[in-house]
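Lecture 7 notes: from sequence to structure.

We start with a single chain of 367 residues. Read the sequence below before looking at the structure.
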Amino acid sequence: MLTLSAPPEVKISIGHKIFASLFLSCAVLVLLMLATLRISLGRGFEEYRAQADQAQAAQEFLNSQMRISTLIGAVALALSSLTAAVLSAHLKRPILLLLRGTQKLAVGEYKTRIQVEGGDELAQLARRFNHLAHTLERGNESRKQWIADVSHELRTPLAVLRAEVEALQDGIRPADPEAFDLLHGQVMALTGLTEDLFQLARADLGQLNYKMREVELWKLLQEVTEPFQSRYAKAGLDLSIVHESSRLQAHVFGDADRLRQLLANLLENSLRYTDAPGRVELRCQDTGTHWRIRLEDSAPGVPPEYADKLFERFFRLESSRSKKLGGAGLGLSICRAIAQAHEGQLQAAASPLGGVRVDFLLPMVRK
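Now the structure, written as tokens:
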């Protein structure tokens, strides 16, 4: 069976297209000018011949004018060709730079940047390209850092598990309840880490399930803080909850379980890092358009330049606030994902109490 293939597509570069369009435009203008000149000369010649005594002299005059017009047209076409070539080369240069830049981005050279000149549309396109390259570079660095951080977090409990199991196998350590408790603790740490990673991955893919309904926020705050009261008291910390609003009820639209998870993570974080004796205050404030849940704790604090990084994955400040063990630096990242799913915001700043202030903003439900 004979199969007819389509003819190969003729590829014409953008430079050739620009040159052709400019040249044709100039050529059309020159031809129109020559046509107008010829018509004008023809009419003038008829009038001249009617008045002239010698027809041959009139014809020579017309031929001379036509030769001059032809020469002018040829020079004009040559100049238009030169002008079109120069302009097409000038317009082609930024386009070629963009083409080479996209080719480099396609092979993973995310440090590629294009020099921006001028303020026209091509310059704006170059700026957008540089912004895209910067975003891809940051994403690639974040991905590499993510892999390194996950490897580091998994390495420690796995190393402890391996050492303990080998000690049990060699008979160096007796198989007593203490040994099994240690193994169980490392297994639970691994389980918590993998669960946090799984939740963050689902949040990135938009696969976290949210059962949105109207929630009474003040009641939810009381339910979340009640189990923490005894733990805070045992740790030498004073936990207080205050409702700062003339409204008796604080209605929001969200998933009660996810909101409970977010608030519990914030309270757990303050419990873990606040020095005893210390204070932790949880306030429910009315801003007019949003409900603001403000959690403040006492020392130690966080330098202002690191406040926004608290919600980054695996971020743990190397200071007195991170001296205690526990956690992989994922809890606040999960909180941010939950807040964004509720069209809310999480913000961190220094607290007047000496520690950290975290504000959680949620849109109000209007009655």
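The chain has a mean pLDDT of 77. Keep this in mind for problem set 3.
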